[in-house]
């Protein structure tokens, strides 16, 4: 299991190239990548992500531990960036490897649902009109009831 | 002595990311009341605690959590990661 | 939408690097990669995949079209290999890009469920003991009832 | 004249990937009966049609599908892609 919280960009291809390669029983690899969207109604120039150093790593580790307990996984990877990003930049990724695709898919969705509203990250959108903290969505909180 | 940390718009309203305070508050809620009575900027930041989350020693917690033995408290809006 | 049926290996990183980059509203990217497993009970030396040229491309295109109708997607990519592969080799991948993660995840799972039992591919496992065609699984057929 | 194709173990049992045949069969099922009566290897390949799938002009179809106007029929076991 690998958890990384970093300012630097990451390369999805390079990350998965070495992922779970020592586990020859893993026939299914799922990845999710979150990308800074270009908002149509305003000109998003920068997305700034703040986090809580120390707690962030713990929270992500606890979420990944939960996933590893609930599903039969060969490996889990979580990378989340903080700092300033531009539209099109990759914010974060999760990867799950499992023997069967159902485990890999469900675990990746679980990781995303929890990471969205239980890991201490906050997004701020900076546009030509000013800046605004992104509001949490009721649907993201509701997504947790599924698990 | 407790380290109190603020993130996102809570940090911006209060105007600092972290402070160390001495308090006799017994719960998180007591500490919030104490801070609100201090200065307008705290009163503004904590006006609606239902819009806030709290972490006690880096674990998500509740406003009625006791402060005994606690070293670090953090206040912030709901998370928006991912 | 891109559908490729090929003998050659593919590079997941390279494939997603250029995927949906022109769609700035796509904040969510999901990939699934199927990998040749090393079976523990026998020594799998080669996995051979046969397909039905002509029908394969049509079937994959029809499945991707269905996904594009059911979910709001910025783009869809399906790559499936045929021929001889070794344990650890990547057999196929799907990628889905969407504004929201729910669409990207569901569409990727739908594509996989249909591709498993509705696209004309057949796997044969060649071990030191001989060779055997892989049997379809009742659970794969059952997975389709979900959609 | 219809092109008849065989895949996976159906191809192996019959011993060829494709043949062009002349037939008066009206449905896929009729064609299967005609092939079975031809030679033992066909009888073996088609012994249990519930274990087989058929594609008519490259679309998955049924054994009761009519053959009128059809150019290509394929027989194969359930797919195992992905």
Automatic annotation (TrEMBL), chains A, C:
Keywords: Molybdenum cofactor biosynthesis
Enzyme class: transferase
Keyword Metal-binding listed: no
The protein's Enzyme Commission number: 2.8.1.12
Recorded metabolic or biological pathway in which this protein acts: Cofactor biosynthesis; molybdopterin biosynthesis
Catalysed conversion reaction: 2 [molybdopterin-synthase sulfur-carrier protein]-C-terminal-Gly-aminoethanethioate + cyclic pyranopterin phosphate + H2O = molybdopterin + 2 [molybdopterin-synthase sulfur-carrier protein]-C-terminal Gly-Gly + 2 H(+)
Lineage: superkingdom: Bacteria
Gene3D superfamilies named in the record: Molybdopterin biosynthesis MoaE subunit
Pfam families: MoaE
Oligomer and partners: Heterotetramer of 2 MoaD subunits and 2 MoaE subunits. Also stable as homodimer. The enzyme changes between these two forms during catalysis.
Family as reported in the entry's similarity comment: Belongs to the MoaE family.
Free-text function comment from the UniProt entry: Converts molybdopterin precursor Z into molybdopterin. This requires the incorporation of two sulfur atoms into precursor Z to generate a dithiolene group. The sulfur is provided by MoaD.
Name this protein carries in UniProt: Molybdopterin synthase catalytic subunit
Species of origin: Parasulfitobacter algicola
From TrEMBL, chains B, D:
Gene3D superfamilies linked to this entry: 3.10.20.30
Domain of life according to the entry: Bacteria
Listed transmembrane segments: none
InterPro entries: Beta-grasp_dom_sf, Mopterin_synth/thiamin_S_b, ThiS/MoaD-like
Record-linked NCBIfam families: moaD
Protein name: Molybdopterin converting factor subunit 1
Species of the source: Parasulfitobacter algicola
């Amino acid at each position: 299991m690998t958890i990384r919280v970093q300012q630097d960009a990451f390369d999805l291809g390079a990350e998965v190239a070495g992922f779970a390669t020592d586990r020859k029983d893993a026939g299914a690899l799922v990845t999710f990548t979150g990308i800074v969207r270009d908002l149509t109604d305003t000109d998003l120039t920068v997305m700034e992500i703040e986090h809580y150093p120390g707690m962030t790593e713990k929270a992500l580790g606890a979420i990944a531990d939960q996933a590893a307990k609930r599903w039969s996984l060969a490996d889990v990877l979580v990378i989340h960036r903080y700092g300033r990003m531009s539209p099109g930049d990759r914010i974060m990724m999760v990867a799950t490897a499992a023997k069967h695709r159902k485990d890999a898919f469900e675990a990746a969705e679980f990781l995303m649902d929890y990471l969205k509203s239980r890991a201490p990250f906050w997004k701020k959108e900076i546009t030509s009109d000013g800046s605004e903290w992104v509001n949490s969505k009721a649907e993201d909180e509701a997504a947790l009831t599924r698990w | 002595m407790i380290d109190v940390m603020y993130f996102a718009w809570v940090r911006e309203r209060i105007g600092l990311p972290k402070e160390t305070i001495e308090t006799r508050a017994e719960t998180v809620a007591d500490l919030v009341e104490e801070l609100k009575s201090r200065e307008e900027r705290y009163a503004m930041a904590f006006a609606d605690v239902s819009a806030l989350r709290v972490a006690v020693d880096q674990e998500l917690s509740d406003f009625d959590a006791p402060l005994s033995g606690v070293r670090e408290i953090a206040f912030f809006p709901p998370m928006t990661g991912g």
